[in-house]
Structure formats: C-alpha cells, structure tokens
Amino acid sequence: MLCERCKRRPAVNEMVINEDGVPVTRKLCRTCAFEVMTGYVPVVKRCPTCQMTQHALRQTRKAGCTTCYTVFRDDLLKMTRQYQQGHDHHVGSIPNLLRTPDERIEERLVKLAGELEQAVEQEDYERAARIKKEMIQLKGQGEA
Ligand SMILES: [Zn+2]
Ligand SMILES: [Zn+2]
C-alpha cells in the first residue's frame, strides 16, 4: 500500500487529516505524516488516476479524467458557477421586438378580411385597396 499523499513511499500511518476543512482518513508514509502533522507542507489535492493537482486544475480549468470530477468536485462546481455568472447577461438579451407574435398578426388579418368584405360591399374600392395592401404587409411579416 502506497502513501495516499505522495504515492511514492509505502504508507505506514493511518491518520485523519484536514483537506480543505474536511477531515479525511488517509494512509500516509512517514514523511507525509510528519509534514501533515507539523503543517510543514500544505495538503495538496491530487487526482489518483491522472495525477492532476488542484493547482493545475485551476490553471487549465479542465478535468484530466473522470476521477477528477470526484476529487475536485467542489472546485469544478465553483468554476462552473463563476463561468456562468460571467455570461449571465448574454442570456435573454434578445429584444422582445424581434419575436413577432404570430397570433396577433393572424387576429389582425381576420379583422382586415372582415373590413375588406365590408369595403367591397360598400363599393369603397380605395379603402379595399388599402386594406389589401396592409394584409399583404402583415402576411410578409408573418412569414419572416
Ligand atoms: Zn507520502
Ligand atoms: Zn484525474
């Protein structure tokens, strides 16, 4: 069994150490146990699969393997949150004006069709022409 911290020397001690404020049980070699106990070297989180360190992860902002997602879960979550916050203002910035309400155009067309019928009945061809023109414009908008 190799030391869980350095992965180089054989583990001799099992001890509870603090990793980012969370107590975890680790099997450590004599050197690491001493370093951790004395606080001489800070405990560095390291992925046991790809050897990615917390420091490297913060620089690259990319997980090295799937195990990293478990080891650096909190760090990755923090990064994702920061990233999303920085891009929040891009979401929902499309002006409402660009969203043509098709239903309203439909409604207007039906109303205009009624008016057109009326105008023709009254032999008001000038008005009928105006209504027809408006209807064509509205249909163009609906298709766009
Ligand atoms: Zn060690
Ligand atoms: Zn990894």
UniProtKB/TrEMBL annotation:
Domain UVR: 106-141
InterPro entries per record: UVR_dom, UVR_dom_sf, YacH
Entry-linked SUPFAM superfamilies: C-terminal UvrC-binding domain of UvrB (SSF46600)
Any one Pfam family match given in the protein's UniProt record, by short name: UVR
PANTHER family reported in the protein's UniProt record: PROTEIN-ARGININE KINASE ACTIVATOR PROTEIN
Protein name: UvrB/UvrC motif-containing protein
Organism listed in the record: Exiguobacterium alkaliphilum
Organism placement in taxonomy: Bacteria, Bacillati, Bacillota, Bacilli, Bacillales
